[in-house]
Each structure stands twice: as C-alpha cells, then as structure tokens.
Design a protein that fits this description.
The chain has three helices and six strands, in the order ββββββααα. By secondary structure, the protein is of the alpha/beta class. It is elongated and about 55 Å long.
Length: 144
C-alpha cells in the first residue's frame, strides 16, 4: 500500500534449476494519490528440466487519480515439459460491489475499507490475518 508521492520498484525472479520444482508469486498492491509502482518479474526455467510449475500474478488497485502502475511479467523457459503462467491486472474498486455494500447500510468509507481488505487477503492463518488487517486498517485510516 503506497500513497502520496511514493515510488516503489520491485524486481523478482523465480529461478528453476531442477526438475520437479514449483513456485508461485502473488503480488498485490494498492496505490493512492500520485504514487507509482513498477514491477518487473521473470520466471526462469533452465535447460533439460521437466515437471516444473511456476506461476506469477501481479494485481493492483488504483485509488488516486494520478497513481500509476507499470508491470512487466516475463517468461524465460528453456525446457519443454513445464507449466508456466504469468499475468498482470490493474483496476479500481469495483463500483457494483461498492454500491451493493452501501445499499446495505454500510458507510462509504467502511465499504471501501472492506473491499480493499478482501482484495489484500493473503493467508488462511488466523493470526497472520489479524495482524495483517490491523496494519491495513491503520493505513486505510491514514488514506481517508
């Protein structure tokens, strides 16, 4: 979660040098104000490997009018018997979901907060979720 005029650049590599390996990267971000996020991610699979599974996803929600996201997923696969996928998506808070929550009596600020928390949900571990949501709630309060 970034705001104001913060700029973050992140480079990730998922390197597979052995057969039968797996990796999964899910990157989620929320941008407010005029913040900027750049992600360059690559899945690398070496020669003569088999049964490799690799996935990379980057998802972002843009809240600020001037916030920007650049995402460049890439594959460098030098073997044939592998399963690799990558993707990137950038969007806004879903207006239909927002309307639905507001039409059920939830105030706009709380509705937005609930939708962003749902977007960022990362773990089924209760303790991790509680700690994570405390930090998210604090940051969302700062964003207004």
């Amino acid at each position: 979660m970034i705001d104001k005029k913060q700029n973050i650049s992140l480079v990730t590599q998922q390197k597979h040098n052995a057969s039968g390996t797996q990796s999964s990267l899910i990157l989620k971000s929320i941008l407010a104000d005029s913040s900027y996020f750049n992600h360059q991610g690559t899945i690398l699979v070496g020669k003569n490997l088999s049964h490799v599974k690799a996935c990379q996803k980057s998802k972002a929600i843009v809240l600020g009018r001037y916030a920007r996201v650049d995402s460049s997923p890439a594959l460098e696969v030098l073997s044939k018997n592998v399963q690799c996928s990558h993707g990137s998506a950038v969007g806004h808070v879903d207006p239909q979901q927002f309307f639905y929550l507001c039409s059920r009596g939830i105030k706009e600020k709380k509705a937005k907060q609930l939708l962003l928390q749902a977007f960022l949900l990362l773990s089924s571990d209760t303790k991790i979720k509680q700690d994570f949501f405390k930090k998210v709630e604090q940051k969302l309060q700062e964003l207004g």
